[in-house]
Amino acid sequence: MAAAPGRRPKIDCGDFAIRIGRDGTWYYRGSPIGRKELVSLFASVLKREEDGGYVLETPVERGRIEVEDAPFVAVELFWRDCACAETGKPQQCLTFRTNLDEMVTANEAHPIRVAICPVTREPRPYVTVRPGLEARIARAVFYELVALAETERVDDRQVLGVWSEGVFFPIDEVPPELTGQAAGAPLRDGL
User: Fold this and answer.
1) What is the dihedral of CA 171, 172, 175, 178, to 10 degrees?
2) CB atoms within 10 A of CB 171
3) pLDDT computed for residue 48 by the predictor
4) CB-based burial of residue 188 (10 Å sphere; 0-12 exposed, 13-18 middle, 19+ buried)?
5) Are 170 and 111 in contact (CB under 8 A)?
6) Helix (H) or strand (E) holding 116
7) What is the four-CA torsion angle of 135, 137, 138, 142, rounded to 10 degrees?
8) Is 41 helix (H, G, I), strand (E, B) or coil?
9) 160 near 174, Cβ under 8 Å?
10) Greatest CA span in the chain, whole angstroms?
11) pLDDT for 3
12) What DSSP designation does 71 have?
């Protein structure tokens, strides 16, 4: 990587021997890093490479780390009504708190996505925290999302999803036994 004129190039330190487990625990050489402040400092310089790898990058050095699933975990959901910037009308806003106490409101810049395992149909939900960096939505928090879900018609299919800041985020196809309900009707009682 070439340095900007007048700046020293970043030192590539190779592998930092840091791993982020699926549960959001950070490890250094196999031992958990117990100080949340230190983990938060590392997380503040975490970046995603074009090849999908993760690096810690400061102005002078960079090094690779291993991430088992996503670097963060969304551990809490806050639901509130907020005013739409364009119309001033109330709309639903969904804000997540991560395991490192970052607050992220789902919107166009911070989308929710749900990967469905093609074999088991098990959902793996995520929310974007920063460009290229996601938080896996914890199971209990995902259940809260499903409780807020509504049906919408998307590309001639009935899908189940949630709204946040005027953006609809699909969760999954509407189960066949529930497709008889009117579009837009909450499915809270059917789940």
Assistant:
1) 40
2) 21
3) 96
4) exposed
5) no
6) strand 112-116
7) 170
8) helix
9) yes
10) 66
11) 56
12) S
Contacts of 31 (CB under 8 A, 6+ apart): none
The two tokens of residue 190 are 């059917």
| Cβ-contact 151, 158 below 8 angstroms | yes
The burial class, CB within 10 Å (0-12 / 13-18 / 19+), for 173 is middle
| pLDDT tens, position by position, 122-143 | 999 999 999 999 999 999 999 9
- Closest C-alpha to 134, from 157, 114, 152, 154: 114
Extract the residue ranges of the chain whose pLDDT is less than 50. Answer: 182-191
Q: What is the dihedral of CA 37, 74, 21, 29, to 10 degrees?
A: -10
| 92: phi then psi, degrees, rounded to nearest 5 | -75, 135
